[in-house]
Design goal:
Number of helices: 17
Radius of gyration: 27 Å
Strand content: under 5%
Distance between the termini: 14 Å
Structural class: mainly alpha
Low-confidence stretches: 45-76
Oligomer: single chain
Shape: globular
Mean pLDDT: 77
């Protein structure tokens, strides 16, 4: 197993390199980069330029001098020297391949630089936002598993019954409702939209969170996370529930179950002592992959709608602002976590069923 883990860890390096390389060149050649964003803000007034250019009042005076002298010469109506100064500030005075090599060197050392527009290091921004996204993803995944597995077992036992039919109908309806649409509906109903004002609309904790005792913090956290979690989990029941049901039905039809019945074992003993371990092999081992899917895809719009300062909202704002250091830093962390999680998923197969040995494969 050790050799397999080492090979998989070494494989992460070229995978990261390919993903970062493709995304780097796609983003770099796309129109509307940070220089365009800065020029557009400068054209709206010197106060916007002051926020972007280094030097404070001196930069504003320099900008005004360029304007008075040039009368917005150049393709964008601004002095070429001013454009060159902005390009140097954002590192776009270098050729694209030189910028690419500089980026790789920084990422090897986990140095993602600083945000173009937030005056903070990218690693610091990710460190502040990642716990929020992990919290949402972890709770959502746990709740989905705690409900879907018993429900799937019940559906397998009652296969073809009225319970199986109506539960499948409700699951399909929940699966068909987009998470963002359900989030808006929950806000309208329970967060002061048009009906009841029961749950908070924004954030994951209250402003006085630090002043609360332990149980007060637990209640406050649960109060804030309730609606976002519900919006994320409703559509997640369908696949796991049906996977659980089909896994149990497939195991129940096997020969060893018939043999156990012939020995006089009760259906409960057969189900939980023999069938359960084999049927839940695929379900339990897929937990890391399910968690990473909910973390990176399900939480994006939810964080935006509920104004939660997570990775999804950070990435969305970075894309809108063309904040390249944040975009590439988030992509790097996302990819690294995803690859490690995939490795954990494969290892969980081997831990649950010792008969599976990835290392023995040719």
């Amino acid at each position: 197993m050790l050799n397999y883990i080492i090979r998989r860890l070494l494989l992460i390096i070229p995978t990261l390199l390919v993903i970062l390389t493709i995304n780097f060149f796609i983003v770099q050649i796309a129109p509307g980069g940070p220089v365009d964003q800065a020029l557009a803000m400068i054209e709206n007034g010197p106060q916007a330029g002051q926020a972007l250019l280094p030097g404070g009042d001196n930069a504003t005076a320099q900008l005004q001098a360029y304007k008075n002298e040039s009368k917005y010469r150049g393709s964008r109506g601004l002095d070429p020297q001013l454009v060159a100064m902005i390009e140097k500030q954002y590192g776009f005075d270098k050729p694209i391949f030189e910028r690419y090599l500089d980026t790789l060197k920084q990422f090897i050392l986990f140095d993602f630089g600083s945000s173009f527009f937030k005056s903070e290091s990218v690693l610091g921004l990710i460190a502040k936002c990642l716990p929020v996204s992990i919290s949402l993803g972890l709770w959502s995944t746990l709740i989905v598993y705690l409900i879907s597995i018993p429900l799937g077992i019940r559906k397998a036992v009652k296969d073809g019954s009225a319970f199986d039919f109506w539960s499948s109908t409700l699951i399909i309806i929940g699966y068909a409702i987009p998470a963002f649409l359900l989030a808006v509906l929950l806000i309208v109903l329970f967060a002061g939209g048009s009906y009841w004002d029961i749950f908070p609309l924004r954030g994951l904790i209250s402003n006085n969170f630090d002043q609360l005792d332990f149980w007060g913090k637990v209640k406050d956290y649960a109060w804030h996370i309730c609606l976002p979690t519900i919006a994320m989990i409703v559509s997640g029941f369908a696949s796991l529930t049906m996977l659980t049901k089909n896994s149990f039905l497939d195991e129940v039809r096997k020969q060893y179950v018939t043999t156990a019945r012939a020995k006089g074992l009760s259906e409960r003993q057969i189900l939980y002592k023999h069938v359960f371990r084999n049927a839940t092999l695929l379900i339990i081992s897929s937990f890391p992959a399910t968690f990473i899917g909910i973390l990176f895809t399900g939480s994006l719009l939810i964080e935006i709608i509920f104004s939660l300062n997570g990775i999804g909202l950070l990435g969305y704002e970075a894309i809108i602002q063309r904040d390249y250091p944040v975009i590439f830093g988030s992509l790097y962390i996302f990819t690294l976590i995803g690859l490690i999680t995939k490795l954990l998923s494969d290892l969980s197969y081997m831990l649950i069923d010792p008969r599976i040995d990835f290392e023995a494969r040719n």
